[in-house]
Structure formats: structure tokens, C-alpha cells
Write a structure and sequence with these properties.
alpha/beta; Quinone Oxidoreductase, Chain A, domain 1; Rossmann fold; seven-stranded mixed beta sheet; six-stranded parallel beta sheet; 11 helices; 16 strands; 29% helix
């Protein structure tokens, strides 16, 4: 079986390798992988900034979609031929994340990922692909889609008429825009690109765009919302951006803290945060139960994930390089088959 591995020493450690075909355990299925999508985390794992050195090297990435090839003796929920995509955790069935479950996040910290021709996966951590999606689209739901769902719906509790603030045009932010619009919420998105601003307004129904390079963008957000501020924030940047998002918040706002593009540390105004009763919730994907709910919403809403570019299996390094360039709008997919 062909696969790509990384060892945490840098992007040059992404290597095509041969591994034995996976064996199917009693509660597992073997999936013929058709497509894999990339996340910023995959760059961090390759560089050793997420989980440190991987010794021995691990199979890269965390998001895949494919077809069930074989099922274990205890599996009754799936059958050969079923189209499925994976939960990012091999074990987080429902409820609040537990420490032992957090260690089953695939594609990092010593746990093999899914950039391979075949993978063995727990049957109860796989979800049927919505009927209207192809494999590439389905592969984007695992991390970016589920993260956006958790920030907007599970913990953000956005409703029709709410104002939602998003940053940038990466996979999570574009998914969040699509989900928010399905709910009837109003969306403000920050980007420094006029071209991207026009595209997200025209293609995804984003109501307003602002330039995050403007020093007064929180004031602009408050003005756009009639002086009240936004109700939900999907904070993908972290660092200094977190306080600026707080500045843009309404009373009772919910911030989904997701990314560290602007750094791991932030200095925040505690008084302003507590006075406005702002909730800051760390989002580390969600459970398989929430992924199932998200998949149902995707199907009911006829939502199609935004794929910026697709690469072939032998172009994995080019796909990683393109991810690192941050030129994309939406997701990057590697077609394995």
C-alpha cells in the first residue's frame, strides 16, 4: 500500500512510502481512500510544531473519504461499497472531549493519518457521505467543516438575524459563512484582498467585508451592526486578533477560538470581556455525533464545500506547498484515486 509519511523535521520529510495493507479488526472497517483534504495543522505536523518529532514517521493528514472495502466481525452499521468519511478522532463518540479521546486525533502525535491508498478505521467513527457530494467534497467535512459547525452551531448557537464575524478565506471561514447563511445569520468577513472580498460577497452571500489591516476594523464592525457588535466570532487567527475580536463583540457574544495563525499567546482586556459577558470557547473539532448532525444539515441544505484546487496523489508535495502559500479560498484536496 502506498502512503505519504512525515517525521516532524520539515516539509521535506513528506515522503512516499510503502506500508503493509491494513488489517481489519473486529470493530473496524478497511476503507479504499478516494480523496484527502488538507488543513493548516498538516503543515504544523510536518514542521514539528504540532506533536514534535514523529519517531517512527506517521502517515500524514487527518481528513479522508472513500469506499468501505471490508468490515470486521462485529460491524453491523456499514457494509462493503458504502461511501464514508471519517471523524477526526478515532474515539470521541459524543459529549465533552476526554483526555484519552483527545489522543486519538489522527495524523499527529504518533497517530497515523489517512494520506494512503487504504486505511483501517473504527466503524463507529465513520459517517455516510451526503448523497449529493463527491469524494473530494466529502473529505473536507472532517476538520474544517466540523470545526465551523462547532463554532457556529454547537457552541456558537447562532440563529437567524445574528451577526457573525469571520476572518480570512481559508476552509473553516468559508464553511462558517455557508453554515451561517443556511441559518439566516448575517456575515461580516475580514480580508485584505479586494478580489477575495468581492468573491465571498457574490458567491457565498457574505453581507459585509472589512480589511483586517485597517487599525479601526473593530469600530467598523460595530458601525456595521448598528453599534451593537457581533453575536458570534469564528477566531482563526488567535494572537493579537483575539482582543480585536472581543472589541467587536456584542453583549453576550460567543467566540469560537480555533486557530493560531497570528500566534499562540494573546493579551486580552479582562474587564471588557467580563463586562460584555463574552464567552470564549476553545474549539477542537467535535464528536462523531456532531459530525453526523453536520452531515445531515449539509444534505438538507444542499451545501457544497468550496474546493479551491485539487491535486493528484503524486502531487502531494505541491498540494502542501500551495497550502503554505495561503493563496487558497476554501479547501485543497488530494485525489488519491
Amino acid at each position: 500500500m502506498k502512503c505519504y509519511t512525515v517525521d516532524g523535521s520539515g516539509l521535506d520529510s513528506l515522503q512516499l512510502a510503502e506500508r503493509p495493507a491494513p488489517a481489519v479488526g473486529p470493530g473496524d472497517v478497511v476503507v479504499d481512500v478516494h480523496a484527502v483534504s488538507l488543513n493548516y495543522r498538516d503543515l504544523l505536523v510536518a514542521d514539528g510544531r504540532y506533536g514534535g518529532p514523529q519517531d517512527p514517521p506517521i502517515i500524514a493528514t487527518s481528513d479522508m473519504a472513500g469506499v468501505v472495502q471490508a468490515v470486521g466481525s462485529e460491524v453491523t452499521s456499514l457494509a462493503p461499497g458504502d461511501r464514508v468519511f471519517n471523524s477526526p478522532f478515532r474515539n470521541w463518540p459524543a459529549g465533552t472531549l476526554r483526555r484519552e479521546w483527545s489522543r486519538t486525533f489522527v495524523g499527529g502525535q504518533g497517530i497515523d493519518g489517512v494520506l494512503a491508498e487504504e486505511v483501517a478505521y473504527p466503524a463507529d467513527a465513520l459517517v455516510p457521505i451526503p448523497a449529493h457530494l463527491d469524494f473530494g467534497e466529502a473529505s473536507t467535512l472532517t476538520v474544517a467543516g466540523l470545526t465551523a459547525w462547532a463554532a457556529i452551531v454547537t457552541h456558537g448557537k447562532a440563529t437567524a438575524g445574528d451577526w457573525v464575524l469571520l476572518h480570512g478565506t481559508g476552509g473553516v471561514s468559508i464553511f462558517a459563512a455557508q453554515i451561517a447563511k443556511l441559518l439566516g445569520a448575517r456575515v461580516i468577513l475580514s480580508t485584505a484582498s479586494e478580489e477575495k472580498a468581492a468573491m465571498v460577497r457574490d458567491r457565498f452571500g457574505v453581507d459585509r467585508t472589512i480589511n483586517y489591516r485597517d487599525d479601526d476594523w473593530p469600530r467598523q464592525v460595530r458601525k456595521l451592526t448598528g453599534g451593537n457588535g457581533v453575536d458570534v466570532v469564528v477566531e482563526v487567527a488567535g494572537g493579537k486578533s483575539l482582543q480585536r475580536s472581543i472589541d467587536a463583540c456584542a453583549f453576550g457574544a460567543r467566540i469560537g477560538l480555533i486557530g493560531v495563525l497570528s500566534g499562540n499567546e494573546a493579551l486580552i482586556d479582562v474587564f471588557k470581556t467580563l463586562m460584555r459577558q463574552v464567552t470564549i470557547r476553545g474549539i477542537y473539532m467535535e464528536s462523531t455525533q456532531e459530525l453526523q448532525a453536520f452531515a445531515r444539515a449539509v444534505e438538507a441544505g444542499d451545501l457544497h464545500p468550496r474546493i479551491d484546487r485539487r491535486f493528484s496523489f503524486d502531487q502531494a508535495r505541491e498540494a502542501y506547498d500551495y497550502l503554505g502559500s495561503r493563496q487558497h479560498v476554501g479547501k485543497i484536496v488530494i485525489d488519491v484515486r
